[in-house]
């Protein structure tokens, strides 16, 4: 597994091959609270707000199969993604606010577009 460090920021560069087992980063945009897998989108997701709004709720991710694990990070530190704890997104009992590009959450698809949190990291604190 290869990890690349962005020489300008000193952070892991998820978009240029540093995605490890999750593959190259792909951007998904929230629409009506849902991020929909498009085409052969991988499992290393950079999620953006609908219409580049300052903040948006992520209520669900669709298009993946049972057993798939995805890593989700915000596409930009300038926009906040709130991953909502719900019947379809079983988090650790609370919503997860991602307001920094270094924040991430790993989710496991339990089937029927129902997700369970594996881990999270709020690295932009």
Task: Give a topology summary.
Elements (H helix, E strand, L loop, with lengths): L24 E7 L2 E3 L7 E5 L6 E4 L1 E3 L6 E6 L5 E4 L5 E2 L5 E3 L5 E8 L2 E8 L4
What does this structure look like?
Helix content is 0%, strand content 42%. A hairpin with a 2-residue loop joins strand 10 and strand 11. The chain has one domain: Jelly Rolls (Sandwich), CATH 2.60.120. The protein is an all-beta fold. The model has no long low-confidence stretch (mean pLDDT 88).
At a glance:
The chain is an all-beta fold and 125 residues long. Helices cover 0% and strands 42% of the residues. It has one domain: Jelly Rolls.
Strand order of the largest sheet: 5-2-1-3-6-10-11-8
Number of strands: 11
The CATH architecture is Sandwich
Strand content: 35-45%
Distance between the terminal alpha carbons, to the nearest Å? Answer: 27 Å
Classified by CATH, the class is Mainly Beta
What is the percent of helical residues? under 10%
**Radius of gyration over C-alpha positions, nearest whole angstrom:** 13 Å
Shape: globular
Helix count equals 0
Low-confidence stretches: none
**How would a textbook summarize the main sheet?**
8 strands, mixed
Structural class: mainly beta
Key traits:
125 residues, eight-stranded mixed sheet, three-stranded mixed sheet
């Amino acid at each position: 597994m290869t990890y690349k460090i962005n020489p300008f920021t000193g952070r892991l560069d998820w978009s240029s091959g540093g995605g490890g087992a999750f593959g190259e980063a792909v951007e998904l945009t929230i629409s009506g609270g849902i991020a929909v897998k498009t085409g052969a989108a991988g499992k290393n997701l950079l999620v953006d707000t609908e219409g580049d709004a300052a903040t948006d709720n992520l209520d669900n991710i669709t298009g993946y199969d049972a057993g798939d694990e995805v890593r989700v990070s915000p596409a930009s530190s300038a926009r906040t993604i709130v991953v909502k704890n719900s019947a379809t997104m079983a988090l650790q009992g609370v919503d997860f606010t991602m307001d920094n590009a270094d924040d991430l959450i790993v989710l496991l698809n339990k089937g029927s577009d129902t997700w369970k949190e594996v881990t999270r990291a709020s690295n932009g604190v």
